[in-house]
């Protein structure tokens, strides 16, 4: 190794596929909207199911390995709300993590102030904090802020 040359570093393994998909969903959620951890888990299960069905339909019907490939995809992408939360805890710093929330609308403990800054900047609907709430931090108004995953029509027209 000469002067300014750096030693070669070993390649770091990529993210697990499930983590990549969770982070992708976080990036799709529009500003001012949220999904719960459970919403994201269901989204991913539905997406995996649709991909498996498409793969089995594309395989032609006569024997191929598409059925086992679909089962493998479902297994690799299975997870619930806790797994979604774990992915965000480990890898979510580079995506809008504040858009994936608890089902009760309570802000993530320890991250309330950072999340609140983002919610205010994005215009995310909030409910006033109950008088007994510690620190009087508002909750998310999930009835108004929850995103169902649908792409707005105007965006579909520009992307398609």
TrEMBL record:
Amino acid composition bias (Low complexity), ranges on this chain: 68-78
Domain of life: Bacteria
Region (Disordered): 52-78
Biased composition, class Gly residues, residue ranges: 57-67
Residue stretches spanning the membrane: none
Entry-linked PANTHER family: 6-O-METHYLGUANINE DNA METHYLTRANSFERASE, ALKYLTRANSFERASE-LIKE PROTEIN 1
Protein name: MGMT family protein
Organism: Streptomyces gossypii
């Amino acid at each position: 190794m000469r002067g300014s040359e750096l030693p070669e570093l070993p390649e770091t393994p990529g993210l697990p596929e499930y983590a990549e998909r969770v982070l992708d969903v976080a990036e799709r959620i529009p500003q001012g909207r949220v999904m719960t951890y459970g919403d994201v888990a269901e989204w991913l299960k539905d997406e995996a199911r649709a991909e498996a069905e498409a793969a089995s339909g594309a395989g032609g019907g006569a024997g191929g390995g598409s059925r086992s490939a679909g089962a493998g995809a479902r297994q690799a992408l299975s997870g619930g709300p806790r797994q979604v939360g774990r992915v965000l805890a480990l890898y979510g710093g580079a995506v809008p993590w504040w858009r994936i929330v608890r089902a009760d609308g309570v802000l993530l403990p320890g991250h309330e102030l950072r999340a609140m800054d983002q919610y205010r900047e994005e215009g995310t609907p909030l409910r006033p904090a109950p008088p007994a709430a510690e620190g009087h931090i508002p909750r998310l108004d999930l009835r108004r802020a929850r995103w169902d995953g649908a792409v707005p029509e105007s965006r579909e027209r520009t992307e398609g």
